[in-house]
Amino acid sequence: MVRRGMVAVAVALAAGGCGTSTEDVISVQNLEHGVADALRTANTPPDELRCKGPVTAQIAELTTCTMTADGVDYHVEVVVTSIKDGQASYEIELKRTTS
C-alpha cells in the first residue's frame, strides 16, 4: 500500500546552531509534529513516528521517518517543496514496510 499526497504544512524554521552557519533548518520536533498533523488530517494518524533530522530548509531536501499506525509499519519520505516567510511545505509519501 502506498499513499501519496501533497501536504502544505507550515513548520517553523530556525537558524542553524553550529558554528557561524545561518542556514535555516527544520528541527526534528517541528518535522515530527507537522508530519503527524498532516497524517491525522489525511485519516492516517500515527501511533508512533520518528523522523531523522534536523533537515536543511531547502527545496528538494529529503528526509525519512518511520511510523506505526494500527499495528502496521511504514517508511515515510518527506521532501521539502517550498520555503516562504519562514515556513516550509513538503510532500509526504508513505510506503508500507514488508514484514
Shape designation: elongated
Domain count, please report it.
1
Largest sheet report: 5 strands, antiparallel
Query: What proportion strand?
Result: over 45%
Stretches where pLDDT falls below 50 for ≥5 residues?
1-8, 13-20
Level of helix content?
Answer: 10-25%
- Our measurement of the CA-to-CA distance between the termini, rounded to an integer number of angstroms, reads 13 Å
Tally of helical runs: 1
Describe the strand arrangement of the main beta sheet, using strand numbers. Answer: 1-8-7-6-4
Structural class: mainly beta
DSSP strand tally: 8
Radius of gyration: 13 Å
- The whole-number mean of residue pLDDT values reads 80
Written as H for each helix and E for each strand, in order along the chain, the element string is EEEHEEEEE
